[in-house]
Specification:
By secondary structure, this protein is mostly helical. Helix content is 36%, strand content 0%. It has two helices and no strands.
């Protein structure tokens, strides 16, 4: 469902949104291997592409499915740098899926 949200001057705003779950009859189970990135990089490797293609194929069959992408880093580097790298990796993953026709 959709509903309008008014503009604010900033700060924290709480929005209560009642959501109804989307039910998929006999939902598919997708088993992925861990997706690893090269040290200090966010590009999708050949191995990662193979795993992500499993998601792409499922999303083509079930276009209403929503996938949440999260990414992590190791503990090398500062917290701020690792957060930035993690965000770049997640965005790279989403871009890969979009580039395969999911949007």
């Amino acid at each position: 469902n959709t509903f309008p949200i008014n503009k604010t001057a900033g700060g924290e705003v709480t929005v209560n949104a009642d959501l109804a779950p989307v039910e998929i009859p006999n939902p598919p189970v997708i088993t992925l291997e861990n997706i690893y990135f090269e040290y200090d990089k966010s590009n999708i490797t050949k191995e990662a592409a193979f795993e992500l293609d499993k998601i792409v194929e499922t999303m083509k069959q079930y276009p209403d499915v929503i996938v949440m992408v999260k990414s992590h880093t190791d503990n090398r580097g500062t917290d701020q740098y690792n957060m930035s790298l993690s965000n770049r990796r997640a965005k790279s993953t989403v871009q890969y899926i979009i580039s395969k026709g999911i949007g």
